[in-house]
Design a protein that fits this description.
Blueprint (H helix, E strand, L loop, with lengths): L5 E10 L5 E9 L3 E6 L27 H15 L7 H12 L9 H18 L4 H5 L5 E2 L1 E8 L12 E5 L6 H22 L20 H15 L6 E5 L6 E2 L4 E4 L2 E3 L1 H14 L3 E5 L7 H10 L4 E4 L7 H9 L5 E4 L1 H4 L2 H13 L3 E5 L9 H9 L3 E3 L6 H17 L4 E2 L21
Parallel strand pairs: 4-16, 5-15, 7-11, 11-12, 12-13, 13-14, 14-15
Antiparallel strand pairs: 1-2, 2-3, 5-6, 6-7, 8-9, 9-10
The structure holds 2-phosphoglycolic acid and zinc ion.
Length: 438
């Protein structure tokens, strides 16, 4: 028996960190090597994302994934039987064709991504390599974690409009040290919020950060800065904000429902510019405007040359959307979320294209995650300079920090912590290499 041949595909319904059903896929190569992967799911999703299929029946309030699982067992599995598990690109291409819809709405991006990821894990097993090494023998970059310590927007039950207030320990020497900085600051922030607001302020958001009952972005920044100062890390961290502005943009009135009043695009641009002026350690701003406002993003990008302007909902890890951004000089970084596009191959292509156009790359989890840590391996394989993994609390978040630390140790001397060079492009992913170990 060919050890690379797919001999079994099994999918099952599991739950994610929010108690929402998602898909776990197991793939076996050569009757021996199993690869397993779970599918993430967002809550502040953009309109240009690939479509996940949900059952729409009464169980799990319509969120069941049995239909998508049926598509894996009845449509995808028969076509992949016997396929060479190391032919990632071919397998992904086959599923894309099998679906036929640009947004993967026929079989479901959740079904397709689960298979795509489990294929890569099975292949790494056959090759007896850790996944990051199997995907790219030159993968060695440990990203700067962009961890959201305070949440608002759709991720929190408070009145903060900005979705994520993140800490980026660029001044750490290693990834492990970055984690220590994050956790110590998180602990101090808890004390500060408790003392100043009360114990209700120490409750968690959906994303693993705090969700204090406040409504002002400046207040959130002040608490965060105070926690950093108390931890003694003021000279080693910078900040990143995810506005997730599509969530508070009202297309009917062409206005942003932000911080107590209706704001125009110009108001938002002014707000962002002023905030960065007041807090110069804010180095990264994600989705500060609606997902369709390429022109506004172009203005911001031109105005704030030293700031990372990240397109998340705007680009949706989709090459066609990134091409539009490049043509209009909108943003200077992409967020790469695997389930926005639905296959590992397309995610790698989006990352390669973005880099070719000098856009920085931020790998990102979704708010809906499981204990699966696959994204850490993929991030190292892509040599991404930044990684957004939500907050600190919960093994859905910790699993990736822990996996990165494991990889860092495994890489030893060849590990490179991105640190202050997080915008630099080290090299494109050499994903999808032909069969066989390095
Ligand atoms: P989501 O949010 O995973 O809930 O969509 C994350 C983000 O907007 O970056
Ligand atoms: Zn975002």
């Amino acid at each position: 028996m060919n050890q690379y041949a797919i001999t079994d595909i099994k999918a099952r319904e599991i739950i994610d960190n929010r108690g929402m059903p998602t898909i776990r896929v197991h793939i076996c190569a050569g009757h021996e090597h199993w690869g397993r992967a779970d599918v993430p799911c967002g809550s502040s999703t953009g309109s240009y994302e690939a479509v996940e299929i949900r059952d729409g029946e009464s169980r799990y309030r319509g969120k069941g994934v049995r239909k998508a699982i049926q598509n894996i067992h009845e449509v995808i599995a028969p076509k992949l039987a016997g396929a060479d598990v190391t032919r990632q690109q071919e397998i992904d291409g086959l599923m894309i064709d099998l679906d036929g819809a640009a947004d993967k709405s026929k079989l479901g991006a959740n079904a397709i991504l689960g298979v795509s990821l489990a294929v890569s894990r099975a292949a790494a097993k056959v090759c007896r390599l850790p996944l990051y090494r199997y995907l790219n023998k030159d993968g060695r970059v440990l990203p700067v974690p962009q961890a959201c310590l305070i949440n608002g927007g759709m991720h929190a039950g408070n009145d903060l409009d900005i979705q994520e207030f993140c800490l980026m320990p660029t001044g750490a020497k290693t990834f492990a040290e970055a984690v220590q900085i994050l956790c110590e600051t998180f602990m101090n922030l808890k004390d500060i919020l408790h003392k100043k607001i009360g114990k209700v302020a120490t409750n968690s958001s959906e994303d693993g950060g705090f969700a204090p009952p406040i409504s002002s972005s400046r207040q959130a920044m002040d608490y965060l800065c105070e926690a950093v100062e108390r931890s003694g890390y003021s000279d080693r961290v910078v900040y990143g904000l995810d506005f997730a502005a599509t969530g508070f943009y009202r297309s009917a009135s062409h206005a942003y429902d932000f911080e107590g009043s209706e704001k125009t695009r110009d108001d938002m641009i002014q707000f962002v510019t002023q905030l960065i002026d007041e807090y110069p350690a804010i180095v990264s701003v994600e989705d500060p405007l609606d997902e369709n406002d390429f022109e506004g993003m172009q203005i911001l990008t031109a105005n704030l040359k030293n700031t990372l302007i990240i397109g998340d909902d705007m680009f949706a890890t989709n090459i066609k959307r990134i091409q539009q951004g490049v043509a209009r000089k909108a943003a200077n970084a992409i967020l790469c979320k695997l389930n926005q596009i639905g296959t590992l191959t397309e995610a790698a292509a989006a990352v390669s294209f973005a880099r070719q156009e000098q856009y920085a790359v931020v790998m990102s989890e979704r708010s809906g995650e499981t204990e699966d840590d696959i994204l850490s391996d993929i991030s190292v394989a892509f040599n991404a300079g930044l990684f957004k993994t939500g907050g600190i609390r919960g093994s859905d978040r910790g699993s990736n920090y822990n996996r990165f630390m494991e990889i860092e140790e495994e890489l030893g001397q060849s590990a490179v912590y991105a640190g202050n060079s997080y915008r630099e492009i080290i090299e494109g992913p050499k994903l999808l290499r032909p069969r066989g170990p390095a």
